[in-house]
Structures are given as structure tokens and as C-alpha cells.
RNA sequence: GCGCCCGUAGCUCAGCUGGAUAGAGCAUCCGCCUUCUAAGCGGAUGGCCGGAGGUUCGAGUCCUCCCGGGCGCGCCA
């Protein structure tokens, strides 16, 4: 891409003038204002300051050594020492022509190819998938898709909650309170009902709690009846998950739930104990601070009443049972042994930050060589709040089911399609509504910075105007339609000319697609891509307003058709990275 | 108490790890469809970036303190 070529030439020039400069600090970015150029760099100002040099003079020295003449007009030194690059029309035009032939336009395969394991979605067995699962599922899927498009190897793993103390209550409920007719009608609702009923009974009556605990012990001991019921609950839940994932278009390479790691848990704790990483604490096994960092940065320390206290990570309960920390450590070990990843991404709620800090640190202590080879990232996101600013629930206090959100989204989209396109048959309208409705839900979740809490609003989530997926899908449809009507194919169109300001603005924005994808991958923030695509849609819309395509004379007509073609492809590829589909007509 | 996060237009939020004049959507107001899809485009209104200091060529972004809010803090996940 032009950007990376310019950046590496600038790096050479800077190092020629300032040999001890940090090469990674030499960065070229899209210009903040089109009037200033297409790309800009502020690197020389940062270099001049500590060296006591005049920034503008240093900039002039760098420019004298800089050879970007094949792509740019004369480089300008502006303001306190900015370097402004303006692409030549011929460079833009040949980049566009190259993109027509490329498998993915404006994207080149990422340089060091990484192997990235992504842990996301992770719903719980016997519970409905609810609105809270949207963020992890949609974010994780978007990151997987983006990393794959960039050429990285991705392993997606759905770490479902299929083990744990809740199964004691579920088993007891299954045996004593199950309504078979209700189970047949809506399995998850019935499982949820018996769980809540037993949970309430446990609070009221210690004997019930004891009975639930006994069921759990029998399950853990390998009791055939309980294992059979447990497997049935997983099967019922998995078919619910599959239905939702099918609607969302989300797939996983693996679904290795918590129970998969049971055979290793005892060994994990024993090995950690043998290596002196974990030790007995009040009857439990725990990982303590090694005292190698300041207390405030130590995940195993906490301050209380003015003094720092130990805050260990428990890897085995005093009753001998294991907990999620144990499972997470076994999982981490398994993933590294199995896939040798360069990175592992955990896409979860921000409230688990402390937990993951402890798990990562404990693993680092336990297996330093494995930890050194793999970067661990907690890709966390904020909470979904109700309009009152409190955690989002329905009026009756229940969580909002994901399936119902998708139903409502598709229904609302269908109403719009009926109004806009009464000429289409209902089956076609329904299909458009499906793509638009599901896309709207996903986009609304991907658009905000993932770390913000966000306020749930049906109207906002399902809005079809403004910076929303329907708008992006609509702009794709327009561009694709023009290309179809023009009878243009990539084989036919060679020459692209960018003459008008609108053509040039659209073209220069297209060039930065790969740059944005790299930023999304680097920071695990798909919202960068959302904003890029929204801007692209705006530029393309302004282009249509100003530049007739089909009514232009050749060779302008073919040139503009090629621009439409590239716009459509980038919109489609970008939306695909977000897990959002397009329709050829809307 | 300690830690993490947040506070930007009336509302909901961006702001690319310190760059040039702080941007969108919604809402309000004014224009644009006999011309390739108006789910659109153009324009207007709207800001002490919670407050006070500091760091430097340059701060919404970094540091300190204060105010206000959310979350977390041993055997749940």
C-alpha cells in the first residue's frame, strides 16, 4: 500500500539524518484535514525536542533525504514541523487499478503472521442466551473475521459453562420438579425455572442445599444417572446455542467447555504445589504474591484498613473441589500446548479484569517459558445498562433474551422494507429484513468503544437511519446496482481517473482500508472499522450526488464504474469483518 | 479504604496511544427527488472536553489533587 511505502521511505530518511532515532516512532498517518494533504507525519517534532534542534530545520533536512517522488507531490513542511504528503493523481490511479485485480482490495497480508486463539461468547448451559451475550459474541466474531482477512491464523473456541456448582441444583430440580411438557415446549425456560425454584428453596431450607450438594458430588463422582441428565441438559442447551449462532452467522472451530478440562485439574494443582507456586491456605490451595512488583501493581495484593494484605488466587477449594481459576489455568495450558498461539484473546466483561490479571500472573509463575511465547490479552467490554443507568433487565427483572431481540429487529426491519419496497415479493422482503435486522443489532454493539458501558434502547439498537448498518448496507446496494446496470466487469475496466474532488476524496479514503483493519486487529477495536465504513459511505454518497456514472461518456463512464466496484467491494469486505451481510437490493 | 473504568453539543456517543480549527448520530430549523435507490445529500443551531493545578513547541488525550458516577475486592463464574 502507498501508506506503508511512504512510511518506510520516511523511516530511511529520518534514520539517515538522526541515526539514533527509534524506527518505530516514525509514523505516517492519514491527514487530519484533506486541505493539508493525504498523509502527515509529526515525527520530526518529537525528535527535535530532546536533541535541542530546530524542528523546521530538522524537517527540511529529512525532506532533503526523502525520496517519495514516485507517489507524492513535493513534501511540505508545515506549522511547527509537520510533514505533509500529497499523493499524485497517477499514484492514486495505479493503486486503484491494482486493487481491482487484488483478492482483497487495499489489504496486503500482515507481515509477521500470528496465530491467535479467541475465547468468546461462552454462554452457560441451562440458561437462555441473553442480551449480555451479544457483546462477547459479536466482538469476538468480528475480531476473528478481521484477523483472518489480514492473513493471520485464528482458532475460535467457545468455552461454554457446562460444569460447576449450579449443576447440583439443576440435577435436584430435574429429579423433583421437572415438568416434562414444559421441557418439550421450551427446554431452556424449564431448566431456568427449576434452577430458580431450587435456588430459592436452598435459601429457605438448608436440607435442600444439602440435597443439591449431594447431587453435585454424585455427578462429580461419575454417577451414571446424573451424568446422563447432565449430558441431556448440555444437548438441549447446545441446540439453543446453535439456533442463535445460526441466526447470527457465528461459527466456532472448537467448543471446549469447562468440563473438557476436568481430567487435568487435579494434576494442575498438584504440579503448581510441587513447583511451589500454590500452597495451602486455610484448607484451600492458593497462589500468593511473589513480591516482585510494587503492591499497587500486584494482582495478589489488596489494601484494607491502611495496610497491604495478601489476595491470593484460589485454585482448589477447602472441600477439595476446583473452581474456575483452576479451569482457566488448565485451559490456558491446553491451548498453548495444542495450538502454540502467539496471542490469546479473552473477550469478556470488564468485571473480570482482576480475575484475569491473577490468572495470567499465576500462569506466568507456573509456566514461564510457555507464558513468554504467548501474549495474553483480556479484551474486556463494558456493561449494558437500562435507561435508569442500572444493569439492564426487563420490567419483571429478567434478562432480555437474545432470540427475542433478533425477532424484534427483523420485524422492525420488515416494516421498513414493506414501506420502501412494496414491489418485492414477501419472501424477498423477509430476506432483506433478516440481513438488515441482524446487522443492525450487531452494528449497534460494535459502534461504541467496547470499554464504555452502554445504555440499551430498543429504538437506538434497531434504528435504521444515521450511522447504522442499514445505511452501510444501503450504500453497498447502490454501488453494486450501478455496477450491474453498467455491465461493468473487472476484466473490462483498466483505466481509472480521479478528476473531480469527489472522485479523489472517495479514492483516497478507499486506500486506507487495510490501515484501519490493522488498527482494529492491533487494539481489538472494531469500532474503528465502523467509523471508517461510515465515512466511506458518506464519501461514496457525495460522489454519486456530484458525478453521474452511467450517463457519462467513455472513458469516464468505465472509470467511475470501477470506482463504484471498488467501493462496493470494500463496503462488503468491511461489513463481513463485522459479521454483517449485504443484500443486492434493498 | 484500595484498585480498575467513566465524566466531551439538549440526548446517545466517537476522538486512531501527545498533533494542526474537538467530530458524528438522534432531536430542532432551512434547502434538494420528471435525472444511476431520498434507508440519501447539502446547510444552520448547539462546547469552559466535570473542576483546579502541572509537564512542553503543542493536552480531550500524560501527571497530581478535588467533585460526581459505575464496577471489583478467598473458596460463584
Question: Mean pLDDT across all residues, rounded?
Answer: 92
* CATH architecture call of the largest domain: Orthogonal Bundle
Q: Please count the beta strands (DSSP E, at least 2 residues each).
A: 15
Low-confidence stretches: none
Number of domains: 4
Report the end-to-end length measured between terminal Cα atoms.
Answer: 33 Å
Total count of helical runs of at least 4 residues: 22
Instruction: List the strand order in the largest sheet.
Output: 1-2-4-3
Taking Cα atoms only, what radius of gyration do you get, to the nearest Å? 28 Å
- What shape does the CA trace take? globular
Helix content: 40-55%
Q: Within the CATH hierarchy, at the fold level, what is the topology of the largest domain?
A: Isoleucyl-tRNA Synthetase, Domain 1
What class, by secondary structure content?
A: alpha/beta
Layout: helices, strands, pairs:
Layout: H1 2-17, E1 29-30, E2 39-41, H2 43-51, H3 55-65, E3 76-78, E4 82-85, H4 89-101, E5 115-119, H5 132-149, E6 153-157, H6 166-176, H7 180-185, H8 187-204, H9 206-220, H10 224-248, H11 262-274, E7 278-281, E8 284-287, E9 301-304, E10 307-310, E11 313-316, H12 324-339, E12 343-349, H13 353-366, H14 368-373, E13 375-381, E14 384-385, H15 402-420, H16 426-446, E15 454-455, H17 458-461, H18 469-485, H19 501-510, H20 513-523, H21 527-546, H22 556-577
Parallel strand pairs: 5-6, 5-12, 12-13, 14-15
Antiparallel strand pairs: 1-2, 2-4, 3-4, 7-8, 8-11, 9-10
This protein binds one RNA strand of 77 nucleotides through strand 1, helix 2, strand 9, strand 11 and helix 12.
Amino acid at each position: 500500500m502507498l501508506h506503508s511505502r511512504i512510511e518506510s521511505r520516511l523511516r530511511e530518511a529520518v534514520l539517515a539524518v538522526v541515526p539514533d532515532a527509534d524506527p518505530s516512532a516514525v509514523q505516517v498517518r492519514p491527514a487530519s484535514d484533506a486541505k493539508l494533504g493525504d498523509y502527515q507525519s509529526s515525527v520530526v517534532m518529537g525528535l527535535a525536542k530532546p536533541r535541542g534542534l530546530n524542528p523546521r530545520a530538522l524537517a527540511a533536512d529529512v525532506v532533503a533525504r526523502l525520496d517519495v517522488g514516485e507517489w507524492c507531490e513535493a513534501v511540505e513542511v508545515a506549522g511547527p514541523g509537520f510533514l505533509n504528503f500529497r499523493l499524485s493523481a497517477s499514484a492514486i490511479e495505479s493503486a486503484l487499478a491494482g486493487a481491482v485485480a487484488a483478492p482483497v482490495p487495499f489489504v496486503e497480508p500482515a507481515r509477521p503472521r500470528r496465530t491467535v486463539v479467541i475465547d468468546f461468547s461462552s454462554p452457560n448451559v441451562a440458561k437462555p442466551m441473553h442480551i449480555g451475550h451479544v457483546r462477547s459474541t459479536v466482538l469476538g466474531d468480528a475480531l476473528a473475521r478481521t484477523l483472518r482477512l489480514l492473513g493471520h491464523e485464528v482458532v475460535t473456541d467457545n468455552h461454554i459453562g457446562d460444569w460447576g456448582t449450579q449443576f447440583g441444583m439443576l440435577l435436584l430440580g430435574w429429579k423433583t420438579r421437572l415438568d416434562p411438557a414444559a421441557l418439550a415446549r421450551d427446554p431452556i425456560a424449564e431448566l431456568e425455572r427449576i434452577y430458580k425454584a431450587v435456588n430459592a428453596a436452598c435459601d429457605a431450607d438448608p436440607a435442600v442445599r444439602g440435597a443439591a450438594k449431594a447431587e453435585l458430588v454424585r455427578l462429580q463422582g461419575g454417577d451414571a444417572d446424573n451424568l446422563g441428565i447432565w449430558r441431556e441438559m448440555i444437548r438441549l442447551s447446545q441446540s439453543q446455542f446453535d439456533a442463535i449462532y445460526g441466526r447470527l452467522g457465528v461459527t466456532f472451530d472448537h467448543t471446549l467447555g469447562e468440563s473438557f478440562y476436568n481430567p487435568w485439574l487435579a494434576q494442575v494443582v498438584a504440579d503448581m504445589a510441587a513447583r511451589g507456586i500454590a500452597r495451602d491456605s486455610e484448607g484451600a490451595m492458593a497462589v500468593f504474591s511473589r513480591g516482585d512488583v510494587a503492591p499497587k501493581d500486584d494482582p495478589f495484593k489488596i489494601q484494607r484498613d491502611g495496610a497491604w494484605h495478601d489476595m491470593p488466587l484460589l485454585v482448589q477449594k477447602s472441600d477439595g473441589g476446583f473452581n474456575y481459576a483452576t479451569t482457566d489455568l488448565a485451559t490456558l495450558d491446553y491451548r498453548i500446548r495444542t495450538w502454540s498461539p502467539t496471542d490469546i484473546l479473552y473477550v469478556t466483561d470488564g468485571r473480570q479484569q482482576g480475575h484475569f490479571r491473577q490468572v495470567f500472573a499465576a500462569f506466568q509463575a507456573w509456566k514461564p517459558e510457555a507464558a513468554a511465547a504467548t501474549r495474553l490479552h483480556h479484551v474486556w467490554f463494558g456493561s449494558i445498562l437500562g435507561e435508569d443507568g442500572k444493569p439492564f433487565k426487563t420490567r419483571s427483572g429478567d434478562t432480555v433474551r437474545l432470540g427475542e431481540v433478533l425477532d424484534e429487529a427483523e420485524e422492525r426491519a420488515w416494516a421498513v422494507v414493506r414501506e420502501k419496497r412494496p414491489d418485492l415479493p414477501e419472501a424477498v422482503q423477509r430476506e432483506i429484513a433478516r440481513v438488515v435486522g441482524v446487522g443492525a443489532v450487531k452494528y449497534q454493539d460494535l459502534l461504541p468503544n467496547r470499554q464504555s458501558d452502554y445504555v440499551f434502547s430498543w429504538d437506538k439498537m434497531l434504528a435504521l437511519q444515521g450511522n447504522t448498518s442499514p445505511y452501510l448496507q444501503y450504500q453497498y446496494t447502490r454501488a453494486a446496482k450501478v455496477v450491474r446496470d453498467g455491465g461493468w466487469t473487472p476484466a473490462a475496466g483498466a483505466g481509472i481517473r480521479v478528476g473531480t474532488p469527489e472522485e479523489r476524496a472517495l479514492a483516497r479514503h478507499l486506500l486506507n482500508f487495510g490501515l484501519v483493519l490493522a488498527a482494529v486487529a492491533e487494539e481489538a477495536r472494531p469500532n474503528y472499522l465502523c467509523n471508517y465504513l461510515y465515512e466511506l459511505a458518506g464519501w461514496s454518497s457525495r460522489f454519486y450526488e456530484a458525478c453521474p456514472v452511467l450517463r457519462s461518456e467513455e472513458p469516464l463512464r468505465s472509470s467511475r464504474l470501477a470506482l463504484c466496484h471498488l467501493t462496493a467491494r470494500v463496503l462488503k469486505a468491511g461489513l463481513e469483518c463485522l459479521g454483517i451481510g449485504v443484500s443486492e437490493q434493498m
